[in-house]
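By way of example, what follows is a protein record of this kind.
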Amino acid sequence: MTRAATVPATAISLLPATSSGAVGASVTLTATLTPAGSTDVVEWESSDPSIATVASTGQKTASVSRLAAGTANITAKVRTFTATSAVTVTAP
């Protein structure tokens, strides 16, 4: 059985770098890995899940749900590399 070759990431960036929206709104974050053909899967984490939660929606994408007014940093991690997006949540 042949296994696909793994291509390790050497860097990560995240878009959008900042976003703002009301409670109840969501935003999709997209990680860009270097090299473009990297086969690594991005791990996601919220600095404050009471304000915004994050759930992976694919190898390099995630959906952020805004739960309460405030700011949370969403971190995307691959290997030893990280990128952060600041998510501001406003009252409805």
In short: Residues 29 and 71 are 16 Å apart (CA to CA).
